[in-house]
Specification:
- This protein is α+β, with helices and mostly antiparallel strands and about 350 residues long.
- The protein has 3 domains: about 170 residues, no CATH class; about 45 residues, no CATH class; about 100 residues, Endonuclease, Chain A, CATH 3.40.960.10.
- Helix content is about 35%, strand content about 20%.
- The chain contains 14 helices and 14 strands.
- It has a 4-stranded mixed sheet, with helices on both faces. It has a 3-stranded antiparallel sheet with strand order 1-3-2.
- β11 and β12 form a beta hairpin.
- α6 crosses α7, α7 crosses α9 and α9 packs antiparallel against α10.
- It holds the Pfam family DUF559.
Length: about 350
């Protein structure tokens, strides 16, 4: 990948024009060129003529393109020659090309930033997202969404460097990506970021407060409240909302740290007075025979200190919440006054 500005500082301009005419270099974004070997086959690409491959002259205007709204209020350009070059690049190269085009005036943001932060893999058909200060002059391009932000500065704390690329801070990325993701996929990056101690619900909430018009912000606020309550997985959030709540339910402790011997364990939903640990087993991990053996050993160890472990599978929690709820109440009723000696390690 090279920029026109960098090339003409070391070689005559005809060298760049020659490589563009021969197809060795391809224009990916204005002023940014990539080696043709980096392009992946794309059956929907139009045939490229020599005039399309040439290095634009100084007086050339921008390629003809329509502009359409993108999700989240950004704009992306409609189809053009460069779209098919930019779109044939792998995601990492696409991001570096976008940053070269921005020339220090933008940072990766939204769902693109989540991928760089390691929280959600971006798909190839999604635009690369950039945040840029208002008035920077950057324009949207095919498969490139540009968000103009008031008050954004290209440095800490708003922008940090990760994997060698400028990226918006994590809380900003989580908030901005929220309405762009399918509803079923929204919670996972937020939960993982908190579980991995990359951020906290309080910091995400502070970022949310700066986006009063964010679509579906109520759902994000609800998720943050569940994380504050100790939920640490989508299944635990479901259990909080549909099972372990309502009349007769005690004040459960979630992800409670206990120490038995030399082993430290965290209990999903713990009724301390009754000494009952309700474990919510996911649909994948806990079905593995090796994980099953780990679970059995853990449950036996907790039994040595008087803690009853009750496990509910993902299927039952999701499809039979009322039946599970009745069982929880019956179990708790049979275990009254078992918690005289607390084992909770705070």
């Amino acid at each position: 990948m090279v920029t026109r500005q960098a090339v003409i500082q070391v070689v005559p301009g005809w060298v760049l024009r020659h490589n563009c005419r021969t197809g060795a270099l391809r224009p990916a974004l204005p002023g940014v060129y990539v080696d043709a070997i980096l392009l992946r086959p794309a059956p929907w690409s139009p045939p490229l003529t020599p005039s399309a491959l040439r290095e634009p002259a100084a007086g050339d205007g921008p390629p003809t393109a329509t502009v359409r709204p993108a999700q989240g209020g950004a704009r992306v350009a409609g189809p053009g020659v460069r779209e098919h070059v930019f779109g044939q690049l792998d995601l990492d190269t696409r991001r570096r090309v976008a940053l070269a085009y921005a020339d220090g005036r933008a940072a990766l943001s939204s769902v693109t930033a989540l991928d760089v932060w390691g929280l959600r893999r971006q798909s190839a058909d999604e635009p690369t997202h950039l945040d840029t200060p208002h008035g920077s002059g950057l324009r949207p391009r095919p498969l490139l969404a540009v968000h103009h932000r008031h008050g954004l500065t290209m440095g800490p704390p708003g922008v940090v460097v990760r994997a060698g690329m400028p990226v918006v801070r994590l809380e900003r990325a989580l908030v901005d990506a929220w309405p762009l993701l399918p509803p079923a996929d929204r919670a996972a990056p937020v939960i993982r970021a908190v579980n991995d101690r990359l951020t906290t619900p309080e910091r995400i909430r502070a970022a949310l407060a700066t986006a009063p018009r964010l679509a579906d912000r109520v759902q994000l606020r609800t998720l943050l409240a569940r994380l504050d309550a100790g939920c640490r997985s989508p299944l635990e959030v479901w259990g909080h909302d549909h099972v372990f709540t309502g009349p007769g339910m005690p004040a459960f402790r979630r992800q409670t740290r206990v120490v038995v011997g030399r082993r430290v364990m965290y209990l999903d939903v713990y009724a301390e007075r009754e000494r009952v640990d309700f474990e919510l087993d996911g649909a994948t991990t806990h079905g593995d025979p090796r994980q099953r053996e780990v679970d059995l050993r853990r449950d036996a160890l907790l039994a040595t200190v008087g803690v009853l472990v009750v496990r509910f599978a993902h299927r039952r929690l999701v499809h039979e919440p009322e039946a599970v709820r009745r069982e929880v109440l019956a179990i708790l009723a049979s275990r009254q006054d078992r918690g005289e000696d607390s084992i909770v390690n705070t």
